[in-house]
Amino acid sequence: MNMKKRVLSGIRATGRLHLGNYLGAIKGMLELQDNPDYENLYMVADLHTLTTPYDVEELRKNRREVIIDYLSAGLDPEKSILFQQADNPYHLELAYLFSSVMTVAKMQHLPTFKEKVKQHPENVTMALLNYPVLMAADILIYKADSVPVGLDQEPHVEVAREIARRMNQDYGTNFPEPKRFKTEGQYVPSLLGEGKMSKSVEGSFINLVDDLETIKAKIAKAPTDTGSIGGEIPKEGGVANLFTLLKLIGSDEVYNKFILDYRDKKIRYSEMKEILSDAIYKELQPIQEKRKYFETHPEIVGEIIAEGNKKAIAIARETVEEVKKKMGLL
Ligand code: TYM
After folding, report:
1. pTM of the model
2. What is the whole-number distance in angstroms between the Cα of residue 261 and the centre of ligand 1?
3. Average confidence (pLDDT) over 267-294
């Protein structure tokens, strides 16, 4: 009998990971991986990639690249089960069973759904509507109660809690009500001065694979000319975002120095940007080094995925059998 609590998280295979994914999700995964009270499962959400327009060959590549990013960032197959969602057919099976306790109206009202409808009005598919139901299946199939994801995913974790309650009430299952595991970087701002860092907004993000020159060029473009300086730092806009990034990634000492410089009206943004760029690169450089190793050892990555898939499938099968029995299907 497994007494450990479980953790489940995933990242879509939509392209290279950025600093927002790292600080908002992966940092939390790393923290939980080192907590002996938890069994960790981290997947690439390749099925969720189908909910927005995508390129088939890109997906084939990226569903593996995300695993390589996980490994490079420090997820350790000795401690965490790393796997590909589409290789475990039970996720889809459970998602269908769950869809019978969730209304269409509720799904249509989610802010995440509305945002995607705006972004891709030509692509409002059943898969998109079902996104949170599949995500609930991803989490609950392992009876995970902790989900390291960024702030934007809170509505989806709430759907998982609602489905858990409905299933437990209607069918007597024992799903936990999962909670989001928050990191300090749960909301990493965009480099463009407004909104969050996002793969779908060009110029808003720093990739985990960016070199120092690229990071410097991107940070140099970040807006700072908000007019007044002196006193408290602004709550939003380009300057606020630079301070947020510096707080997340720089030392307290450097952060405090620039706070004082701002207050005393002697801040030099070029200096602040230089220091911020260096700090980001210092954080990413070891990840990039490790990436080179996994890029040149595809057979090791293949073995890790095969092993992870096998373990994930074994746990998932049990949950689906239990649910099918309780729903009258076995
Ligand atoms: P995705 O690929 O959109 O996002 C991956 C993770 O990165 C976090 N994130 C951010 N965190 C802080 N600041 C940002 N600017 C930022 N941008 C992205 C997201 O919150 C997320 O944690 N639906 C999930 C994928 C998924 C999943 C799951 C997650 C599918 N099934 C089951 C957990 C459990 C997603 O949006 O991925």
Report:
1. 0.96
2. 35
3. 97
